[in-house]
Fold this sequence. Notes:
The chain is mostly helical. It has ten helices and two strands. A two-stranded antiparallel sheet has the order 1-2. The longest helix is centred in the first third of the chain and has 18 residues, at 47-64. The mean pLDDT is 93.
Amino acid sequence: MWIVAEQIAAYAQLKRLSPQTVARWQAWAEPDRAALWELVQALQLGENHLRDFLDWCEEIALRDGSTVAAFLARPELRRPLTAQLGRNDKLKAVKDALRKLRYPRLSQLEEELRLAVKALDLGGRVQVSFPPSLEGEDVTVTITARNTKELDEHVTRVRQRLEDGAIQRLFALLDQV
């Protein structure tokens, strides 16, 4: 028990973490502190990432009536740590998995939108994108063409998807946010 607290203090000094962030982490129950310590150490989290992790872990534990240690043991959060990835890719994978746990409805909606865009079958030169974290109502369609014939083909395909209602599904999904 004492070892983790001391390791956190040494890490905080090395990474120049704020006393408020460290105090918040040190106030957790020992198993929760130790579980996060493993992630922090593996991912070499700095102040901002650590605060994000603290926020999300506390919110998930409160919402689910669980402990931080219990959900940090989940395979989708552990798998990236042992994968052959660089530090940034591991961090991104763990943050993505943690974000899905924190925002399950938003994550499910993002997946439904991804599948709906794929089903449009607009080709690789027509991109459909949504606002970050789906905050907003705008759908952006970007068409890349090498000539007028290709542009006409892409526009025709988009127009067909408008007429058959497939694109309307995207807006209907966004209305669920």
